[in-house]
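Hi all, long-time lurker, first post. I run a small reading group and we've been trying to get comfortable going from sequence to structure in the token notation. Rather than ask abstract questions, I figured I'd post a concrete chain and ask someone more experienced to write out its structure so we can walk through it together at our next meeting. Sequence below, copied exactly:
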Amino acid sequence: MENRLLISIALCTYNGSTFLREQLDSILHQRYTHWELIVVDDCSTDSTRDILQEYAGKDSRIALHYNHRNLGYNKNFEKALGLCQSELIAICDQDDIWHPEKLAKQVALIGSHTMIYHDSEFVDSTGQSMNRRISDKLNLYRGNEPEVFLFLNCVSGHSILLKKSVLQKSLPFPHGFHYDHWLAFNAACLGSIDFVPEPLVKYRQHSANNTDLLASKQVEKKAAQKVAEMGKESEWLLLCARQCTGRSNNLITALYRQSLPRNDGFLNMAYGMLIWKNRGTLLSILKKSDTSKFFYTLRKIWGAKVKLIGQ
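-- Answer (accepted) --
Happy to help. Here is the structure in token form:
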């Protein structure tokens, strides 16, 4: 295979020595070989840096950067992605295992799309299959409707190959939101996204995961936390409305405006009706029956005055 397009791979590390070697080895064994690996370590205190220096000493495609203070997950990825110079950029976690064909299959599909992602297989901390995929939990989306990503996200950071134009539109990452969700939304604003239906990453599940797709850490939320989340939902809708124009902006702006009286009152039926009317788009990622989608929508209408009753 002729590797003509350079791919910049952004890898963030933080105390990842337990699984890092497996991830680095899986990158080195990619069939697609024309890549550079941009690593930003976020002040690790274990042997992560020693491992990185060992691998960088053997392969000139690996460039290492070290933070002087801990930036945290989202900001560290923002920095790593900002250091990527190629027109094609892939995102990599420190604890997964890539399929040898991952990059090759994504490059072959990207064409005029702004982003290509893929399905992933859940594995446990030892790397053993849990016999579940992301597509078992969520419907994977292909298309150019950014509204799909307003309430839900099926694009995990480790699965992303994007064009630099998406990154330019997305930086800086907004505080308090998942960077992969933001990138997926902006990719759909700029053009179309597509996915490879195969699991091209073994997505490791362990106690230190930043996301919990399998809902293994469920904790009962307090009323004040639920109220704060409503405010974050409105903030997210406003951010999204400012990013997109035309038809998409009209719906997103309407949702934002209807979310505000919901936040401060008992309920807002108009907010739920707007979501339900557009459920074919807004809830397309939700892999549930229409009945479940109805109850999902119903939960969206209740405001702070209801949630704080009895507090």
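A couple of things your group might point at:
The first helix runs from residue 20 to 28.
The beta strands are 7-13, 35-41, 62-66, 88-92, 97-98, 115-123, 129-133, 161-163, 193-204.
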